[in-house]
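Hi support team,

I'm filing this because I wasn't sure whether my run with 2-deoxy-2-amino glucitol-6-phosphate finished correctly. The job status page said complete, but I'd like someone to confirm that the output block is well-formed before I use it downstream. Pasting the exact inputs I used:
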Amino acid sequence: MCGIVGYIGGKEAQPVLLSGLKRLEYRGYDSSGIAIISSKNNIEIRKSPGKIRELEKLLKNRPLCGMAGIAHTRWATHGAPTQINAHPHQDCRGKIAVVHNGIIENYEALKEKLTKEGHFFRSQTDTEVIVHLIEKFYRGIPLEDAVAKALKMLSGSFAIGVVAAEEPDKLVGARRGSPLIVGLGNGENFLASDVPAVLGFTKKVIFLGENEMAVLSKKDCRILGLDLKHIPKEVVPIRWDIGQAEKMGFEHFMLKEINEQPGILEHLINSRIKKKTGQIYFQEQNIPKLKLRGIKNIFIVACGTAYHAGLVAKYVLESYCRLPAQIDVSSEFRYRDLLIGPETLVIAISQSGETADTLAGIREAKRRGATILSICNVLGSTLTRESDGLIYTHAGPEIGVASTKAYTAQLAALYLFSFYLARVRGVLSARGLKKLLQQLHKIPSCQKQILKQQKNIASLARKHSHLGSFLYLGRNVNYPSALEGALKLKEISYIPAEGYAAGEMKHGPIALIDEYRAVVCITPSSKVYEKMVSNIQEIRSRKGRIIAIASSGDREIKDLTSEVIYIPRIEEIFSPLLVALPLQLMAYHIAVKRGCDVDQPRNLAKSVTVE
Ligand code: AGP
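And here is everything the job wrote out:
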């Protein structure tokens, strides 16, 4: 996610803004910039792609002087990470500057209208429409009035900081859907996306609510609605230290990211479905429908957790698109004598977009004439630049090496694309799509219900954390869930763990079953529920220690094991989006109990950019 810092006070703003940006680096970014109102009431801007040190080099040669300004670290969503696309963005006259975190969903229509009205745009970003809208309204009214008028025209999410040369003693911030806080100092005030940016200056903050606006001077702070009416707000004393604050009070980034999943999915699902028609759309997808109709087979390529997401997609694509869907790990795919060609759609899945084997795989696939669609979380990454079509997961930067929120975001994007493709190919009715999307819309609230069980899941995990090995069993669309649950555990706790198709148990793994091993049985309501129950009975008769993931209301499972984690009932096809959370939490709490470095497990890198 992007990072915002604003300052107005009695000190030089540049060092304050830079130190705030550095405190937000953990959020991940690919460019940064700063705008300060100079003593001559001009706005001066410096911005650069890359790390903050690149911005510091610019400022070393050409420093900015002034006591009010805004700064930004950008996590690119619209427009590659370039100098032009970096924030802050300015109006036509260079008299207003804006920084933004979020996604403006109606920016294309607004940009077209503003261009017709004579505004000229410098960047490819959605953000730039905000500053031109403010310019449009900023005629003889206070800045905050113009900002409120502009924000009421936006759909989507925003947290913004705004300064204007004509009102040098004012700093305005506002939010809808993306976080923004006010820091209250002595003779100085702050705006920031997150608490760490201001902790070095103040421990008194105000958390802005939806559609609330802060109007700051160095001595004053007013909180208004977009109707410009005053809103009384509580000043919250922060008791975190810096390290904790970057994790929003969670002990590890991984736990924070597990808990971010409902919000990320809600935004991902809602931003891909047209409210009026219920149709699925991908702004950035780019592969023509005619091309998609001509596809005869699909090949999915990915590594690790992304591979497990692809394996779920294989079931969904076959069920709904009626197309043969193969899948292989990238390191095998790239060396096979592939039977693919112009009628093949290759779907490459990668959180980082920089995994060497996956990149090599798509290059080989392109050489053979296949069309490449990538499902990726990092805009501007190598994979996205080498694909024919893109779907961004917009999960924000994933700091924990063990992938959690990126996995469920990949799943959601793959479900949506599968249903989109099925509609394009005329094998899914509008009514059928509507029923599927009604289920998909339930997922975020179902995930929230699971997250309410964290204490129980943690104690169940700790109870089994001494065991020397784990076996994860699942069937059908939850066979990939078993693989993913095993990977989560092994990569952060270093406990040997295997995921298996439950039906394969008799073909070998049953020899492993004894009272010294836990067997995690993924047993939600499904067409193969009874088969899973048979597996559990076979494990019981061999004294295996069973942990079941089951659907709420399932009484039968309680007769088979006392260790049950319940998930809300949902159509089986969507259950991997729910099953993932207890498996992530179990792995997390076992690893913490064993004193492992959860966010940076030994020997692992967040992105494997070498073969
Ligand atoms: C998942 O928890 C691991 N960190 C790893 O398996 C990861 O999924 C794999 O390296 C693929 O990374 P990518 O999604 O960035 O391509």
